[in-house]
Amino acid sequence: MSRILKRFFSSTVTIKPTPSKTHHHQPIPSSNFPSGYLLTGIHAGVKKKPGLLDVGLILSTSSRPTSAAACFTKNAFKAAPVLVSEQVIASNAGRARALVVNSGCANAVTGKQGMEDAWAMVKETDKLLPPSSSGTPDGHETLVMSTGVIGQTLPISKILSAIRSQREGQASLGNDFAAWERAAKAFMTTDTFPKLRSRSFTIHGREYKLAGMDKGAGMIHPDMGPPSIGPMAAGAKGPLHATLLGCIMTDAAVSPASLQRALTYAVERSFNSISVDGDMSTNDTIIVLANGAAADAATPEIDDAKDKEAYEIFKKELTEFAIDLAKLVVRDGEGATKFVTVTVKGAPTYQDAHLIASRVSTSALVKTALYGEDANWGRILAATGSIPLSAPLHPDKVSVTFVPSDGTASLPVLVNGEPEKVDEVRAKEILSLEDFEVVVDLGGGDKAEVARYYTCDFSYEYVRINGDYRS
Amino acid sequence: MSRILKRFFSSTVTIKPTPSKTHHHQPIPSSNFPSGYLLTGIHAGVKKKPGLLDVGLILSTSSRPTSAAACFTKNAFKAAPVLVSEQVIASNAGRARALVVNSGCANAVTGKQGMEDAWAMVKETDKLLPPSSSGTPDGHETLVMSTGVIGQTLPISKILSAIRSQREGQASLGNDFAAWERAAKAFMTTDTFPKLRSRSFTIHGREYKLAGMDKGAGMIHPDMGPPSIGPMAAGAKGPLHATLLGCIMTDAAVSPASLQRALTYAVERSFNSISVDGDMSTNDTIIVLANGAAADAATPEIDDAKDKEAYEIFKKELTEFAIDLAKLVVRDGEGATKFVTVTVKGAPTYQDAHLIASRVSTSALVKTALYGEDANWGRILAATGSIPLSAPLHPDKVSVTFVPSDGTASLPVLVNGEPEKVDEVRAKEILSLEDFEVVVDLGGGDKAEVARYYTCDFSYEYVRINGDYRS
């Protein structure tokens, strides 16, 4: 049917069902979690449906000081929990021992009341912590996160009594799989499965654990930077761009400054390299806690100024783990039927490569073509060329290749600026896979670092989900 | 139904029919067109369907020199017709007398063959021109445009014989409504109606006419600048961001440099301020011709260095006319059911306001909410805050208002950073209109220039049209 005719053809369309993603949630042996943490998830009633967990708690019980680092949304309308967490980290020079999260309401654009509510969550959670030898100047040791609808205030008394329940004989805090899973469920909004992973690594012969969780399915195109106030502050400058929330806990001992540096690096290559819909939230936050519970008293905190080798191992492990967690968000993207990796190589700089990967990953035309399983490389190219770079792009050096995830042969569609005669049957084979990769090579050689973005397709289901979000 | 449940609910949805837009095409009295032009549209066979016009010709027959100015896409993959038109304008110091356009094939990413084809179109059209007293250095006086699929070469012999037909007794060139309409139809791709308008204005007691046409429905988010080579070149630097093609003809006499300056100003506020899908094309081009046919021999060319007043009148008329033409493209946006004006005021600079208006206009979450007729101002705010500005934005000064097009009362939803208690029934009333305006006031006072962007909603129909474009 011609395109013009189609535009007048009013009818029904069958929505391709979003493939079930629940197999991405699997039990993890309790021994794989880092030691020195207690977690739970509670139904406080922010979400109306009985039993849905909506308040999560994560406490460090380590006898060593716990370092905390974070990356926050660069959105000008930072939600109250973002502002409060920034203050807690700043006033404690990178020390914090607890995290409280609620889902169902973002506590964003809620004025003074919002700030009071976020602080109340911090203070109530502080009371759950065992006394600390290290002490902090203002006594607040809890970071806070919220996710949900913007512009509504929290049902704060419900949330506070849920937190309080953990001191009043109804404690469900634990460190086994069930406890971690409850916490992960408390993060969920439109997520279809809880996103929980663990990993272990070895430094100087000692084994440490990383475990973490995140959430997000829509309003996902984070661009997060380190805190904008306090000793960890950095110029929060960057390119343009859900709520994406995530936290990562380790039982390694890491100095606050090195933890922040490692997290900033990891976030750029993970959470700042994913897109569902190109929209940046007011609440995006990634927090990492390092409590040293698996290090003996004599093991110093990992610090890049003192032991570069140990730091580099930690940074690499944290980055790979963050990428694993970040991919889960795209996998569960609203309406997504595809998981597509956009790889850009041979660009003048990593930032250039990252910008192009971001633009291709957010192009509505590219994403609808992915949904339609159409190897429309012209749209990929148009998106690639629409970004001003630090040095001119040479169209006659650019190549585009589709790489299937099943190990079969790649399909070049453009080689050094010249279109290939594309085998459309083969193209369809690759694009009908759930996972594949699009490689854009700008031809600048292999010196430049490769940027990878993780994105999904744009479907009828996306329009349905977001055409009546609040109903 | 809960959002999570919805994600698994595979079914059919009824696609709201895109409202018919054909009433936006109306006859124009032939006396309203500028004098000294001949136009036509021909079926050459680029489009397969018999009778569909796909080659357009516009010739200036004025005895005075014709000035030509243009703004071209900033995409790194500029199509062959863009590169060739840039060269013609550069080598002729802003003089050109003809325009040839084809639809159905973009002649983009077509290598050497593409350049040869574009030049062949220029040369064949040059032969249609009457001898010129002014003469040009290389003899080429034709600009060229193409639109359609990327990566395919033109059926060039069909196109050349169509052009040649105008010299061989089959000439359909004319200056009446039917001729202008034929030319406008030759621009169309997924457009549902030809986009043709005229306007008159007076300078120093003399009446001049403007008439023009444009096309575009998808891959629309132009960012065009003046030619990158030749005397009219300017640093083509700008923010990020179909094929949009347009041409405007006037019978006023304007110097080439002033014509370019006026066009660059007008394009920023018109064609560079529209978005259908946020995707920038490799072919976007706007051309203006000024042939002086309505000025007597003694009337000098309008030039801002010599007669500022006349120049300012011309610039204002050109800008308003360009906005009228640009709006038609959004009105006909692929799958669009809404025409929404996004106005940003009180920003530190016009560029800041323009960037925010652009971001709000391209947000997938905002556009699906518009489709859903949902006053989800939280998404508007999140998009507003996601752009780094030249000065910090003050969240507590920001207001958001929905303004209906039917003259009834506006609906403030956020005032000085505080959410209003929104009358949802009234909100639905406004959002169910086909036309309305979203005003984002950053609270920086009325000194800053107001930026306006014109956008549409994101519908099931958009996904359908673009999910299988090439089929």
From TrEMBL, chains A, B:
GO terms for cellular component: mitochondrial matrix. The keyword rRNA processing does not apply. Keywords: Acyltransferase, Amino-acid biosynthesis, Arginine biosynthesis, Autocatalytic cleavage, Mitochondrion, Multifunctional enzyme, Transferase. The keyword Nuclease does not apply. The record marks 242-243 as: Cleavage. The active site is at 243 (nucleophile). One of its GO terms (biological process) is ornithine biosynthetic process. CDD domains: OAT. It catalyses: L-glutamate + acetyl-CoA = N-acetyl-L-glutamate + CoA + H(+); N(2)-acetyl-L-ornithine + L-glutamate = N-acetyl-L-glutamate + L-ornithine. The alpha and beta chains are autoproteolytically processed from a single precursor protein within the mitochondrion. Pathway: Amino-acid biosynthesis; L-arginine biosynthesis; L-ornithine and N-acetyl-L-glutamate from L-glutamate and N(2)-acetyl-L-ornithine (cyclic): step 1/1; Amino-acid biosynthesis; L-arginine biosynthesis; N(2)-acetyl-L-ornithine from L-glutamate: step 1/4. One of its GO terms (molecular function) is L-glutamate N-acetyltransferase activity. It is found in: Mitochondrion matrix. It comes from the Eukaryota. Substrate binds at residues 189, 215, 243, 334, 466, 471. It is an enzyme of class 2 (transferase). The record marks 147-148 as: Involved in the stabilization of negative charge on the oxyanion by the formation of the oxyanion hole. Its EC number is 2.3.1.35, 2.3.1.1. Heterodimer of an alpha and a beta chain. Catalyzes two activities which are involved in the cyclic version of arginine biosynthesis: the synthesis of acetylglutamate from glutamate and acetyl-CoA, and of ornithine by transacetylation between acetylornithine and glutamate. Belongs to the ArgJ family. This is Arginine biosynthesis bifunctional protein ArgJ, mitochondrial. The lineage of its organism: Eukaryota, Fungi, Dikarya, Basidiomycota, Agaricomycotina.
